[in-house]
Write a structure and sequence with these properties.
The complex is a heterodimer of chains A (116) and B (113). Chain A is mainly beta and 116 residues long. Chain A contains no helices and eleven strands. Chain B has no helices and twelve strands. The N and C termini of chain B lie far apart (41 Å). Classes of the chains: A mainly beta (116), B mainly beta (113).
């Protein structure tokens, strides 16, 4: 596709359930980012991939969060034993080159996760 | 450490009026600066970016922004706002040589008919 695709668009999970969020970046984009956007806030960095290598996961809130990008394209963000504080919009973004701070990000429409 | 401040949480303007959204950043060197727009239920779309050179940059949808090093600011402007500009606007800074992007908390723009 022409843009970054995320699925599902909406996810409702009961507290304690595991969820998996998918991101299809723009083809050929080297860098992939996951951001968490709480209501009324800006995106907060979660993790960064350069191709298949996860170079930074410092933003992941806890060890319940796990991300992978095994073949350097599609990425999955998994949240285990979801808690209410995990409710947010999860945004995926990709950029063409390896992250150098000057490459614009292309965002997907996000997955809105609601934990009840 | 980098930081981005958008002092205005909400701004309301009348259609046809001019607009200025404020952004202040903190970074030791010349930053890479971006403005993104987010419509409800959508991802962020890049409006414009500044890396170097001319401090007045033009973007899509008639937006422009001016980099002022002395004020550590990168304010977004539009001469005449359209109702379709109602959205949330995010300023972001990228640190040169790294992949780190820091976003402000956003300014929600409301446009009155």
């Amino acid at each position: 596709g022409a843009g970054v695709s995320q699925s599902p668009r909406y996810k409702v999970a009961k507290r304690g359930q595991d969820v998996a969020l998918r991101c299809d970046p723009i083809s050929g984009h080297v860098s992939l980012f996951w951001y968490q956007q709480a209501l009324g806030q800006g995106p907060e960095f979660l993790t960064y991939f350069q191709n298949e290598a996860q170079l930074d996961k410092s933003g992941l809130p806890s060890d319940r969060f796990f991300a992978e990008r095994p073949e350097g394209s599609v990425s999955t963000l998994k949240i285990q034993r979801t808690q209410q504080e995990d409710s947010a919009v999860y945004l995926c973004a990709s950029s063409l080159v390896a992250g150098t701070g000057d490459s614009p990000l292309h965002f997907g429409n996000g997955t809105r996760l609601t934990v009840t | 450490a980098q930081s981005v401040t958008q002092p205005d949480i909400h701004i309301t303007v009348s259609e046809g009026a001019s607009l200025e959204l404020r952004c202040n950043y903190s970074y030791g060197a010349t930053p890479y600066l971006f403005w993104y727009v987010q419509s409800p239920g959508q991802g962020l779309q890049l409006l414009l970016k500044y890396f170097s050179g001319d401090t007045l940059v033009q973007g899509i949808k008639g937006f422009e922004a001016e980099f002022k090093r002395s004020q550590s600011s990168f304010n977004l402007r539009k001469p005449s706002v359209h109702w379709s500009d109602a959205a949330e606007y995010f300023c972001a800074v990228g640190a040169g040589g790294t992949y780190k992007y820091i976003f402000g908390t956003g300014t929600r723009l409301k446009v009155l008919a």
